[in-house]
Design goal:
With 157 residues, the protein is an all-beta fold. It has one domain (2-131): Immunoglobulin-like (Sandwich). Helix content is 0%, strand content 38%. The chain has no helices and 9 strands. The protein has strands at residues 2-5, 15-21, 35-42, 48-51, 55-59, 63-70, 83-84, 99-108, 121-131. Strands 1-9-8-3-4 form a 5-stranded mixed beta sheet, with no helix packed on it. Strands 2, 5, 6 and 7 form a 4-stranded mixed beta sheet that branches. The chain is globular. The chain starts with a strand and ends in a 26-residue tail after the last strand. The model has no long low-confidence stretch (mean pLDDT 87).
Length: 157
């Protein structure tokens, strides 16, 4: 599971971080030409963030290190430059809450495409946990339910 630290709001502090993934074993585009597209989807809000990492370093085929920056609320996100934020001015953290996310990594030759449907191939998927800068582990919103409340549930003795 990936762990992603959110930026600090006051004083504003960006967080540059790296994730280590094993995408090289399924990659079909040569390393010199590939650009990776990362999709993060919140399990709480079901909203997705898309971005391209700022740097990628492959290490002998064992892992690939991807670096990106989570920026503070006062800055403007630049997802094609690897600068994302979980804070939105309208809903604050309602759109991208702290907590569990799924992630998918795609390969492509474009350095500006943020649409997974236009990517060449999905290489990897998994779980990520996004936590607050101060380490707050409060997760998904109160509206999130892991069950369907309208379905009749039976308990048998």
């Amino acid at each position: 599971m990936l762990q992603i630290k959110n930026a600090k709001t006051t004083p504003a502090t960006d967080v540059t971080q790296s994730i280590y993934v094993t995408v090289a074993e399924r990659q079909t585009i040569a390393q010199a030409s590939v650009h990776y597209l990362i999709e993060l989807t919140s399990l709480g809000s079901e909203n997705s963030l898309y971005f391209i990492p700022t740097s990628v370093v492959a290490s002998n085929g064992r892992y690939t290190k991807m670096t990106f920056t989570v920026i503070d609320p006062g800055e403007t996100a630049a997802p094609t430059g690897g600068r994302i934020k979980f804070y939105d001015a309208v809903g604050k953290y309602d759109t991208y809450p702290m907590g569990f996310y799924t992630y998918k990594i795609y390969e492509q030759t474009s350095s500006s495409n943020l649409d997974p449907a236009s990517a060449t191939k999905e290489l990897q998927e998994g779980m990520a946990y996004v936590y607050d800068f101060s380490g707050n582990m409060k997760e998904v919103s109160s509206a999130f339910k892991e069950y369907e409340p309208t379905t009749t549930q039976y308990v048998y003795p």
